[in-house]
Every structure is written in C-alpha cells, then in structure tokens.
Design a protein that fits this description.
Blueprint lengths: L1 H25 L11 H17 L14 H18 L22 H34 L1
C-alpha cells in the first residue's frame, strides 16, 4: 500500500513540475533577442524600416510585376466595388458579438500553450494511474 502512495506522489510531483515548466514557456512573450542592447535593437528596427521603404515592401501603392499602373488601378477599383456590393472587407456590417479586448488577429499562442500543458499533464496523470494500477495488480496476484 505504501508503494502505491509513493508512486502516486511521484506521478503528482512530476505532473506539477511539468505543468509549471511548460506554463512558463507558454506565457513567454516575444521581445528583443537576449543580450542585445536596447539601442542596438532600435537601430536594427530603424534599418529594417529603411530597407522596406527602399525596396517598396511597405508601399501599398506599388504595382505588382507584369501589370501597368492603369491595370492595377482598375483591379483595385473593381475589388472595392465587389467588396461594397457583397459587404466584404471594410464594408462589412458590424458583427453582433463583441471580441475580448485582449484578443488579437494572429494565432492564439497563449491558448495553445495552455492547452498543450493541460494535455501533457493529463497524459502524465493517466500514465501514472496505469503504472500504479499495473504494479499493484501484480503484487496482489503473487501475494
């Protein structure tokens, strides 16, 4: 009986340790690289923005390769008209539900991390229960 409690305590301790370790990783937020001074990071950002402007990567008025400016303008006007006709894009009717203030347009990595940690804990817990059940079953059969 003592072995069962000891094994259960070990499984619970491992589950808590695993959940704690993974929860910290799930809540980590992206920031400047470790060891990079703030001034150096700011210089990198400014340089990146300058290169984007130089090569037209942020310019929304840039014309795609293989199109004239007139063709591109006609395509944009047609797209805006279709969006307005079918209520898409900026012409979309407001949604009936409201979004949480902390939500963003990107993938919810925080929710994914929490789910992954919970699933890992569940797997550890089930493994421990099966391990304890298997060992205690053998002990009863031979005693």
């Amino acid at each position: 009986m003592t072995r069962i409690f000891a094994a259960a305590a070990v499984v619970i301790a491992l589950t808590i340790a695993g959940l704690t370790a993974l929860a910290g990783a799930a809540q980590a937020t992206p920031s400047r690289p470790a060891g990079m001074p703030k001034a150096e990071y700011r210089a990198l950002i400014v340089r990146s923005e300058a290169l984007d402007q130089k090569y037209g990567l942020h310019d929304q008025r840039a014309v795609p390769a293989g199109m004239t400016r007139a063709e591109y303008r006609a395509l944009m006007l047609r797209s805006e008209a279709l969006n307005e006709k079918y209520g898409l894009g900026a012409h979309r009717a407001p949604a009936a539900t409201t979004r949480a203030s902390g939500s963003s347009e990107g993938f919810a990595w925080k929710a994914f991390g929490i789910g992954a940690v919970a699933m890992f804990g569940f797997v550890l817990l089930i493994s421990g229960v099966l391990l304890v059940g298997t060992r205690s079953g053998r002990a009863r059969a031979y005693s």
